[in-house]
Amino acid sequence: MVLLFLLWILVVSVREGYPNAFTEKSKNDLIMSHKDEIVLYQPDNSIRLEVRVEDETVWLTQAQLSKLFGVDRTVISKHLKNIFTTRELEEKGTCAIFAHMGNDGKQEYQTKHYNLDAILSVGYRVNSINATLFRRWSSQVLKEYLLKGYAVNQRFERLEYRMTETEKKIDFFVRTALPPVEGIFYDGQIFDAYKFASDLIKSAKKTIILIDNYIDESVLTLLSKRAKEVDAIIYTAQISSRLELDLKKYNAQYPPVTIHTLNRSHDRFLFIDTDAYHIGASLKDLGKKMFAFSKMELKAQELLQNIGI
Q1: What HEC string does the chain produce?
Q2: What predicted TM-score, i.e. pTM, was given to this entire model?
Q3: For the segment 116-130, what is each residue's pLDDT rounded down to a tens digit?
Q4: Which PANTHER family would you find in this protein's record (predicted)?
Q5: Could you tell me the CA-to-CA distances from 189 to 52, 270, 282, 292 in Å, in that order?
Q6: CATH class of the region 182-307
Q7: Angle at which helices 62-69 and 116-126 cross, to 10°
Q8: β-pairing, 231-236 with 257-261?
Q9: Confidence of residue 141 (pLDDT cuts 50, 70, 90)
Q10: How many other CB atoms are found less than 10 A from the CB of residue 13?
Q11: pLDDT, tens only, 239-298
Q12: Residue 228 neighbours by CB distance under 10 Å
């Protein structure tokens, strides 16, 4: 599903004997030789990077890394320093100096770039989801780079091996960074089920809506893990005096939760922004008996409208 977020456009440099040319140029374009190319990475409207492709890998500056992962450049610099200090990667093998033109279009600058290994090492420290998206995009671009004749065919096998090794190294991060779309928790998996619900709640950016006929203070505890700017609304069958008291105390300490009564739903649903999850057990009982969950194809707004919310 994450590949649906990718919008990538290949912008190929002019090469001797090859008909393609840049479809877009600006004063900020990197100065290139016939050995490399610039590829446009634009997974959404918030990120647009001109990525250098050379020597069977991709290269980004610290400024581009900052933009890609949405953190300050000083954070990028700190993580790179730690990566090289601990010898997780060798600086000599993962850095290169390339020339680029300044904003005035007159002066040329020499700037340090970092290859895919360094990019991913930083990414999984600060923004694993964006790192996963960029890794998958890079894999496809590098394969295209070889298949279209920009490098000799023998390099393809080496690239495949390198990408396979990279897949193995970051498989753990891919599994843990992206919420699962379906699954089953068995009787006794109380912590695993709690962790699943907690991670979903932490992933919300704007809104959490829970439809669950059985609510107690443990559900409020889960909702306390959301970001403070995220709104939380609960729909339940009845609001007892005890729940009212728990809610009053909760709202005095944490960003408030709103609770309404709703008698039109038998099942439990958890809406995280635009995503809808069908949950086979009440949040307060997760892991006490076997239950299944699934991410629904219907978007949250459509389902909420059908319910009458």
Answers
A1: CHHHHCCEEEECCCECCECCCCCCCCCCCECCCCCCEEEEEEEECCEEEEEEEECCEEEEEHHHHHHHHCCCHHHHHHHHHHHHHCCCCCHHHHEEEEEEECCCCCCEEEEEEEEHHHHHHHHHHHCHHHHHHHHHHHHHHHHHHHHCCCCCCHHHHHHHHHHHHHHHHHHHHHHHHCCCCEEEECCCCHHHHHHHHHHHHHHCCCEEEEECCCCCHHHHHHHCCCCCCCEEEEEECCCCHHHHHHHHHHHHHCCCEEEEECCCCCCEEEEECCEEEEECCCHHHECCECEEEEECCCCHHHHHHHHCC
A2: 0.43
A3: 889 888 888 887 677
A4: CYTOPLASMIC PROTEIN, CYTOPLASMIC PROTEIN-RELATED
A5: 46, 19, 14, 12
A6: alpha beta
A7: 40
A8: parallel
A9: confident
A10: 20
A11: 999 999 999 999 999 999 999 999 888 889 999 999 989 898 888 888 888 888 888 877
A12: 7
Pair of tokens at residue 171: 């498989």
Spatial separation of the C-alpha atoms in residues 250 and 244, rounded to whole Å: 10
pLDDT at 73: 92
Residue showing tokens 């559900």: 219
Residue extents of the structural domains in the chain: 2-177, 182-307
Query: How far is Cα 298 from Cα 277, in angstroms, rounded to an integer?
Result: 10
Q: Which residue reads 């998206």 in tokens?
A: 133
Cβ burial of 103 (10 Å; 0-12, 13-18, 19+) is exposed
Cβ atoms of residues 229 and 254 within 8 Å: no
CB distance 130 to 70 below 8 Å: yes
CA angle 277, 218, 177 (to 5 degrees): 45
C-alpha–C-alpha distance, residues 164 and 66, integer Å: 26
What is the rounded average pLDDT for all residues in the chain? 76
96 or 22: whose pLDDT is higher? 96
Is the CB of residue 121 less than 8 Å from the CB of residue 83?
A: yes
Q: What is the pLDDT of residue 160?
A: 66
